[in-house]
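Justification of resources, computational component.

The compute hours requested in this renewal are based largely on the per-chain cost of generating structure records like the one below. Each record pairs the submitted sequence with a full C-alpha cell output. That output is archived, and it is also reused by downstream analysis tasks.
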Amino acid sequence: MLEAILEYQQKDGQLVTIEREIIDSKAKKVVNQMFGLVKNAQQKLVVIEHNANILISEFNELSATFEKESKDVENFTKQKIEGVSPEDLVNYEKKVNEANVNLLLLEKNISRLSNSISDILKNFEKTKNEGIQAKQRYTQGMDAYNNLLESKQPIIKKLKKELAELEKKADAKLMSKYKKMRDDKKFPIFVPLLGHSCGGCSMELATSQINKLDENGMLECENCHRIIYKNK
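The structure output for this chain reads:
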C-alpha cells in the first residue's frame, strides 16, 4: 500500500520540479514585473488626467476673470473726467487701482497654473512612454514564457499519463490525503522518519508517537501534517 503511493510521489516530484522551474523562470518574473509596471502606469495616468482637468478648469476660470477685469480697466481709462466731482475721481482712482491689483494677481496665478499644466503634460508623456515600454517588455516576456511552457509540455504530458496509471494502484484514502496537501502547495507529502524526527519539518517525535508509528506503519505529523513512515 505504501510502496504504490511512494512511487507515485517519486514521479510527481519530477512534475513538481518542472512546475517550480517554470514559476521561478526569468520569463515568468519579467511577466509579473512588467504587468505590475503597466498597471501602475495606467493608475498614474488616471490620476494625472484627473488633476489636469482640475487645473485646466481653474485656468479657464481665471482666464475669463482676467479678460473681464482687463475690459473693466480699459473702460475706466476711457471715461471722460471733465465735470466729475473730486469725490467721484477718488472713487474712480480707487477702482482702477483695485482692478490693476486684481489683474496682477490673476496674471501671477495664470502663470503658475500654466507652468503646472505644462509639468503635468510632461509627466503624462513620461508615464505614457513608461507604460508603452513596460507593455512591450510584458509581451516579450509572455512570448518567452509561452515558449518555455511549450517546451515542457511533452514531458509534463508524459508524467501526467504515468501518474494516472500509478494512481490506480495506490490506496484511495491515502491518495485523497495526498492530493489535498498537494493542492495546498506542500511537497513531499509522505516523508521518512529521520532518527526520531519528522522528515518534513524536523520536529522531534515523542516515544509514544514512534511506538504508534511502529504499530500502524504511518503517522500524521502533529506539526506539518505530513505522513511519516519508517524506511525498511
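The chain has five helices and four strands. The mean pLDDT is 87.
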